């Protein structure tokens, strides 16, 4: 059985090139929250993760080979084929930051998409993020009333990044526009 490979993903672009060489052309690493809370309802009575999938798929096609995806729940890992796993488990942001570190060290900007409720102590997560100084942008996709929104703002501020709120109750446009602005601003390594 052939596995699905999303158009524009690192693995898709690498069909004509080496995966490692393709990653060298990437501009951003997007950390995608795939914890159980992403099953929560968003706009159109759809789960948040479905909207995240839709937007990430569009962005990979638009910015082919420029996005490295990292999914995180209980553990974090790179999704070279561009396919994010179904939501499950906890929100292990510490592991997501650990997986993102070599990409950051190679000059990629880090974008975190989450409902902002880490499984670890929030101060511990912010401390771990501080080694990414100026290179983490946070996009909040949770319930407007949750403390996660304030946490992601604190995290972005602590590292000199930006924080955006994508109100998924009103559609996916805000999230897609926010990510596009960040991708365009990723600049050169």
Helix tally equals: 7
Kindly provide the name of the CATH class. Alpha Beta
Could you tell me the radius of gyration in angstroms?
15 Å
What is the percent of helical residues? 25-40%
**Record field, number of beta strands:** 6
Mean pLDDT: 83
Could you give me the name of the CATH homologous superfamily? Answer: von Willebrand factor, type A domain
> Structural class from helices and strands?
alpha/beta
Question: Strand order, biggest sheet?
Answer: 3-2-1-4-5-6
Shape: globular
Main beta-sheet annotation: 6 strands, mixed
Instruction: Write down the CATH topology.
Output: Rossmann fold
In total, the number of domains comes to 1
Order of helices and strands: HHEHEEHEHEHEH
**Strand percent estimate:** 15-25%
Structure description:
- The protein is an alpha/beta fold and 189 residues long.
- It has a single domain (10-184), classed as von Willebrand factor, type A domain (Rossmann fold, 3-Layer(aba) Sandwich).
- It has seven helices and six strands, in the order H-H-E-H-E-E-H-E-H-E-H-E-H.
- The chain has a six-stranded mixed sheet with strand order 3-2-1-4-5-6, with helices on both faces.
- Strand 1, helix 3 and strand 2 (67-72) form a beta-alpha-beta unit.
């Amino acid at each position: 059985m052939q596995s699905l490979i999303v158009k524009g993903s690192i693995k898709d672009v690498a069909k004509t090139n080496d995966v490692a060489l393709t990653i060298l052309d990437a501009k951003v690493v997007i950390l995608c929250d795939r914890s159980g809370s992403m099953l929560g309802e968003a706009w159109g009575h759809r789960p948040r993760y479905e909207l995240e999938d839709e937007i990430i798929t569009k962005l990979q096609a638009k910015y082919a080979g420029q996005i490295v995806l990292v999914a995180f729940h209980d553990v974090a890992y790179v999704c070279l084929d561009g396919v994010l796993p179904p939501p499950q488990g906890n929100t292990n942001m510490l592991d997501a930051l650990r997986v993102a570190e070599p990409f950051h060290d190679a000059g990629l900007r880090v974008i975190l998409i989450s409902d902002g409720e880490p499984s670890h102590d929030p101060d511990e997560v912010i401390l771990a993020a501080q080694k990414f100084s100026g290179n983490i942008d946070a996009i909040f996709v949770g319930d407007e009333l949750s403390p996660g929104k304030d946490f992601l703002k604190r995290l972005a501020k602590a590292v000199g990044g930006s924080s955006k709120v994508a109100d998924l109750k009103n559609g996916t446009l805000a999230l897609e526009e926010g990510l596009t602005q960040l991708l365009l601003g990723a600049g050169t390594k």
